[in-house]
Design goal:
mainly beta, 4 helices, about 50% strand, Porin, about 350 residues
Length: about 350
């Protein structure tokens, strides 16, 4: 109930800011005849607009999938997110994010000591992998992340870890140096996911190094070492039972290049849960065709248990059209080749509206 009231309050503030943004600024309408009260109100409106930011997006569409034993044929809402960022001072800020189709996803505070040293505390996206920290509004695939990222970063396909949307609770230090050529993150996290206490006494350490030698090109390496607490059993790792503590380690190395003619992102990821090794690889390409129309292609391979050959390969091709700023329409076809059932088709259509 408290969260719902807070959301209503934030939405009211967003409406207020939107109305205020459509009115002339204080400088343009201030006259000598303004009363002291009017001037104070105009100054308050300007201060509010400068200190508060409001953003949101919705992604919805259609999904067809003929995987055994049942066929999916449905319209669906994938995500409806709203977040507010408050700049308390020039160095201190706070962010709150809620997904209306699920749960509160982020709430954290940042403090900037220097561009090379910032502190974040709260619930936020973990640093593992090149893709996980990226917004779904910018990623090419309707499924958003590759199979390995979805599983290894805790986005929801690992039964031992559950649906955590790639987020966790903890403390992080981050910053840039050497003329923004290097960006780093070092985090101490619960290792249990969102909106919950740690299931054991151990904490996860996650490190990220992002090197940007030239404009548009970056190389990203990440590592995670920790101990998981299983919230359920998993067919991919049957030795670990619900409630067990187990080693949960991760590594990744990837690269991304973006220019007006094309963009490509590729990454190798690996992990170890208890005694089970996992690894995956993906490569996603975007190619402009005509004005705001783009072609998308992706190769995505992941093994959930190397010793038992529990692998799946996905081949994706599609189109997307940016009809306004952050808004787009997408259509994609994926041929899925899993280890345990026969190959199947996956067709998705999605509309994205963002502000």
């Amino acid at each position: 109930m408290k969260i719902n009231k807070f959301i209503l309050f934030i939405m009211a503030l967003a409406t207020f800011v939107s109305i205020s943004a459509q009115t002339p600024s204080a400088d343009s309408i201030a006259t000598k005849t303004d009363s002291v009260e009017q001037k104070k109100l105009k100054q308050l409106v300007e201060t509010f607009a400068d200190r508060f930011e409001f953003h949101g997006y919705a992604q919805a569409g259609y999904t067809y999938r003929d995987a055994e034993p049942t066929t999916t044929n449905t319209f669906d809402i994938k995500r409806v997110l709203f977040w507010a960022k408050v700049k308390v001072t020039d160095r201190w800020s706070f962010l709150f994010m809620h997904d209306f189709s699920s749960v509160v996803q982020e709430f954290y505070t940042d403090y900037r000591v220097h561009e090379a040293f910032n502190v974040r505390f709260g619930q936020f996206k973990n640093s593992y992998s090149l893709e996980n920290p990226l917004s779904p509004t910018k990623l090419e695939l309707i499924e958003c992340y590759s199979q390995a990222v979805l599983f290894l970063s805790g986005c929801g396909t690992d039964p031992l870890y559950g649906v955590q949307y790639g987020r966790d609770l903890g403390l992080m230090f981050y910053g840039t140096c050497l003329d923004n050529h290097f960006y780093y993150e070092l985090a101490l996290m619960n290792g249990q996911g969102i909106n919950r206490k740690d299931g054991n006494k151990q904490k996860d350490i996650i490190a990220r190094l992002d090197y940007r030698p030239i404009e548009g090109l970056r190389f990203v390496a990440t590592a995670q070492r920790g101990e998981g607490h299983a919230i359920d059993s998993s067919a991919y790792n049957p030795e670990i039972k619900k409630g067990d503590n187990y080693r949960r380690d991760r590594l990744s190395i990837g690269a991304e290049y973006i220019n007006p003619k094309f963009r490509v992102r590729t990454e190798y990821l690996s992990g170890k849960d208890g005694k089970v090794n996992l690894w995956g690889y993906y490569c996603t390409v975007g190619l402009p065709l005509y004005k705001k129309l783009e072609a998308i292609a992706s190769f995505d391979y992941f093994e959930r248990n190397v010793s038992k050959d529990m692998d799946q390969t996905n081949y994706t091709a599609g189109l997307q059209y940016w009809f306004f700023n952050k808004c787009r329409a997408q259509v994609q076809y994926t041929r899925c080749c899993p280890f345990n059932i026969k190959d199947y088709n996956h067709v998705q259509v999605q509309m994205q509206v963002a502000f």
